[in-house]
Amino acid sequence: MSTRNRQMHFGLLMTANGSHFGGWRLPQADPAASFRLQHYVEMTREAERGCFDLVFMADTLALVPTQLPATLGHAPPIAHLEPLTLLSALSAVTTHIGLAGSATTTYNHPYQVARLFASLDHLSGGRAGWNLITSGNPAEAWNFGFERHPDHADRYDRAREFAEVVFGLWDSWTDDAFVFDKARGQYFEPARMRAPNHQGKHFRVKGPLNMARPPQGRPVVAQAGSSEAGRALAAATADIVFTAQQNLKGARDFYADMKARTAACGRDPASIAVLPGVAPIIGDTDAEAQRRYQALQDAFDPLIGLDALSAEFGIDLSAYPLDAPLPEDLPTSPRATSRGDLMLEQMRA
After folding, report:
1. What confidence tier does 74 reach under pLDDT thresholds 50, 70, 90?
2. Model pLDDT for residues 253-311, shown as the tens digit of each residue
3. Whole-prediction pTM value?
């Protein structure tokens, strides 16, 4: 699943009924597809036939809180299978496509994450990818015994050390450490073991990882933060950066910035791939594509979109007219996501 020495990469974000909030309501859609293995098998095999580099599973460890009470129970599907379980199943029915999934550094432990993705890398023959996230959903805190979600800066500080520990655990063994010498009765060579013995601000992890080094050495790492802290983390750790710029200038600026930051971290700028997200509406003709788009729009409740936008901005937008421009004095919120910042910038452009 190497991202190096290639000019263009394609990945499929696997949402059961697509990225449009109205997709699950179309007559031909299976609303329960989020929980059906065969649905994901068909999507992944189709992407593999189309020569995509990877399929990707996003994740959150809680229901996304409803901002507007009227939308409770009407939001688009936000419950789905756990990514590593699903990707492991998909590894058995595919041959070469990359299999990437999200695992948060905020509510997991480095040893656990290192072991999960190393296992997937072995099972898939070197096709695992870790989307390194810091949890933008504050409701996750309540599911792990915390009263509040950590601040943005604290989450990224923890994430940087988290990645360092995971990389050290993946390097716990040399590639030839497990000799399996039956004649000598030697299973592995102790001199080829490199326990990280990490002691830092957030973690103390002795190691080593209790399995052989992953086939890739280091599974592919993806990151999607567009904030200052997110970009810095991606430049230091990632092979892939997912991004959501909405215009050509913003995309070019982001690309140039990420390449410069990667070089400043002592890494080859060519080693990091920038993948902008798109949600195409496809038809054999423009008219057919427009009809499909309109069908999605007709199945979409504007209040659901308002609720989602409120979550991205970190504020309740229900007090503002739906058909009016955003007010210039719209309050800012520390709960806003980096994607919300991008959308707000686009709306005001």
Report:
1. confident
2. 999 999 999 999 999 999 999 999 999 999 999 999 999 999 999 998 888 888 888 87
3. 0.91
- The owner of tokens 């308002």 is 306
| CA angle, 45 then 50 then 53, to 5° | 85
Q: Is residue 85 part of a domain?
A: yes
Tell me, what amino acid is at 218? R
Q: Residue 237 domain-assigned?
A: yes
Q: Does 77 or 132 have the greater pLDDT score?
A: 132
Domain-embedded: residue 342: no
The token pair that represents 160 in the structure block: 């940087």
Which domain, by its residues, includes 79?
11-282
The encoded tokens of residue 131 equal 């989307």
CATH number reported for the structural domain that contains residue 88 in this entry: 3.20.20.30
Torsion sign (Cα): 113, 116, 120, 122: positive
Read off the amino acid at residue 200.
G
Residue-by-residue DSSP string for 128-192: EEEEEE----GGGGGGGT-SSPPPHHHHHHHHHHHHHHHHHHHTSB-TT----BTTTTBSS-GGG
Angle between helices 302-313 and 338-347 (to 10 degrees): 110
Note whether residue 174 is domain-resident.
yes
